[in-house]
Design a protein that fits this description.
Elements: H1 9-25, H2 36-44, H3 63-75, H4 82-96, E1 105-109, E2 115-120, E3 127-134, E4 137-144, E5 149-151, E6 161-165, E7 174-176, H5 178-213, E8 215-216, E9 219-220, H6 225-254, H7 262-288, H8 299-309, H9 316-329, H10 335-340
Parallel strand pairs: 1-3
Antiparallel strand pairs: 2-6, 3-4, 4-7, 5-6, 8-9
Helix pairs in contact: 1-3, 3-5, 4-5, 5-6, 5-7, 5-8, 6-7, 7-8, 7-9
Family: Belongs to the acyl-CoA dehydrogenase family.
Keywords: FAD, Flavoprotein, Oxidoreductase
Pfam families: Acyl-CoA_dh_1 (PF00441)
Length: about 350
């Protein structure tokens, strides 16, 4: 992501320095757990509740800064539930008027049986913000992890993606309007688009570095047309994904997450990011050859991450259908206004 008008360059530099320092001290492992020392450090810097209201312990920043924070973590291969905690769980509690303390949170939407699958970071959170439908309306409850049945799982890069089960009859929640739950879905989808775009940018950077420094038959790989075409295709797809994601993010911020075309723009961003991942992953591993398939090389940290994230909070197929449905239901001559707002 590129810095938006509200994102301070010094803040972005500080974010990068924090994650770079952590990565240097703590190399990645196959199983990802939330690092309490890093979380504490980020909390001291005001980054854990970056977008929270200052009167309630937050830093009062916006989504422009939050997007840069997420991208910085991705660039350095640091896995931590900043988005789930700040942008989703704590935001939702603030929106329905439930007090937020220092506990680490994630969020999930329960089905009619009181279950939710692939919940990010549930097993390592202190509390889980539950959303469910009862008596014709949505309700929200902030629940201690110990009161839930949680079955641990992981995604493609080892991040916790757990199954959560709750007793719906025993839950007491705060009412939440359908518009708020729609916003939760769009914000969740956009979070993953931001992360995928950051991974694609890092994949491109690694490919450029490798193809310009690696020499074969007396010249850099980048001088071979076939290799150059592979890299240029990655650059094109990454730029398209980034442009559509930034357009959705700008529209969300400008409309207070209630613009009439926001659902379409988020769907386009997720669709473009999902399809860009296919091209970028395939081409990047071809550019790197056998070296790029080893665990020691960093490429897999970003290719597998992009593949994992593009399927969360809605698959590529789901978001493709959302794009199609929105376009098909636009009134005559309404498609342009759907795109431009």
């Amino acid at each position: 992501m590129t810095a938006g008008p509200g994102a301070d360059a010094a803040l972005i530099e500080m974010m990068d320095a924090v994650f770079a320092g952590h990565r240097e001290k703590c190399p990645p492992t196959t199983t990802v757990q939330r690092d309490p020392d890093l979380w504490r450090h980020l909390d001291e810097l005001g980054l854990v509740r970056l977008t929270g209201d200052e009167q309630h312990g937050g830093s009062g920043a916006g989504w422009a800064e939050a997007a840069e924070l997420l991208a910085a973590a991705v660039r350095h291969g640091v896995r931590i539930p900043l988005a789930e905690h700040d942008l989703l769980a704590c935001w939702l509690l603030d929106a329905v008027g439930v007090p937020v303390d220092d506990a680490v949170r994630t969020v999930c939407v329960l089905d009619t049986q009181g279950s939710a699958a692939q919940v990010p970071w549930a097993a390592s959170a202190d509390r889980v913000v539950l959303v469910w439908r009862a008596d014709g309306q949505y309700r929200v409850a902030d629940v201690a992890r110990a009161t839930l049945t949680i079955t641990a799982g992981v995604n493609l890069i080892g991040e916790p993606r757990d199954t959560v089960a709750a007793d719906l009859a025993a839950l007491e929640g705060t009412p939440a309007g359908p518009a708020l739950i729609t916003q939760l879905g769009l914000k969740s989808g956009l979070v993953r688009a931001i992360q995928v775009c950051a991974a694609l940018d890092r994949i491109l950077q690694l490919c450029v570095e490798h193809s310009t420094s690696r020499v074969q038959f007396g010249r850099p790989l980048a001088k071979f047309q076939a290799v150059g075409n592979l890299v240029s295709d990655i650059a094109t797809e990454a730029a398209l994904a980034r442009a559509t994601t930034e357009a959705a993010l700008s529209a969300g911020m400008a409309s207070q997450w209630s613009g009439p075309n926001l659902g379409f723009l988020v769907a386009v961003a997720r669709s473009c990011a999902g399809h860009a991942t296919s091209v970028a992953v395939r081409n990047a591993h071809q550019v790197h050859g056998a070296m790029g398939t080893t665990r020691e090389h960093r490429l897999h940290e970003f290719t597998r991450a992009a593949l994992a994230w593009r399927s969360e909070f809605g698959s590529v197929g789901y978001w493709d259908r959302q794009v199609t449905d929105n376009a098909m239901h636009a009134s005559a001559g309404g498609l342009w206004s759907l795109i431009t707002g």
